[in-house]
Amino acid sequence: MLGCLLGSVVGDALGVPVEFRSREQLSADPVTGVRGHGTYDQPPGTWSDDSSLLLATADSLIHNGYDPPDMMARFLTWLQGQAYTPHGKVFDIGIATRSAILRYSQGAPAGEWGGREERDNGNGSLMRIAPLSLFTRALSPAEIVRCSMEVSGLTHAHPRSQLCCAYFSLLLPLALLGWPLERAMSQASRHLAPFVPEAERGPLARILDGSVVEAPVSEIRGSGYVVHCLEASLWCAANEPSYERAVLAAINLGEDTDTTAAVTGALTGAMYGRRAIPEAWLRALASREYVEGVCERLVDRIDEEMPRR
Ligand SMILES: [Mg+2]
């Protein structure tokens, strides 16, 4: 489980300096390890909103168990620059996430925080769902789906974003158990199927039937659209032989490099474990002890809870 959480933060940090670069730019100058500066002029190892929201979610689970409004309260303290940042500053935030947190802070009722329009399907809930996936891993598939959809909905309440989160939450526990990826994908898909409305079967088709892993790279995008992000992460995990290679491949797809790498890092971190993360990448991580502390506390909390569920 530690590999999954740290793998996500490390992937985010590696992708930050080249966020928004095109695939063409990156193929001329591919990322091969830790860099600094670039897009946001941050020091090497700086992680972004992806990890901030993942850590806030983890912290909420550690202190309060399953309590979605408490997660939202913590997202607000992050947005206000009071917690969950590597250097005390918020330098990157998705539009849908910002709008949702602002609605929350203005007193809107819980059902109205997350955007529900088709254009609200960015990858902003998928990038922070891993701690919840780990926390709910011993529950029934239907409960996993319900919790993931609710937690996605804090900021991303369109069914497409919610279903991508639910799929990922069904998949991660199987990856942790060492299932081969394609078998885990088909099991996750089978468990998700009863919850997929007709209108979402088309957009999610390549994920649900597993065919995305066989697509040529020209048909894989690293954009901020939640379906692109999940497809790209599955593709990198399936077509690269290690955590390290999958995360670099995710970044070098271009566009939303930090988030594609964060989601790919969570999945391949779960598949290959903590020791597959290059030590040099962990060493470079900003506020490394803090990040590791939060991740370790969540893993301890889950281990304590497991026998009771
Ligand atoms: Mg980011």
UniProtKB/TrEMBL annotation:
Q: Which Gene3D superfamilies match?
A: ADP-ribosylation/Crystallin J1 (1.10.4080.10)
Record Pfam families: ADP_ribosyl_GH
Superkingdom, taxonomy of origin: Bacteria
What is the protein named? ADP-ribosylglycohydrolase family protein
Q: Which of UniProt's keywords are assigned here?
A: Hydrolase
Q: Which InterPro entries match?
A: ADP-ribosylglycohydrolase (IPR050792), Ribosyl_crysJ1 (IPR005502), Ribosyl_crysJ1_sf (IPR036705)
Q: Which family does it belong to?
A: Belongs to the ADP-ribosylglycohydrolase family.
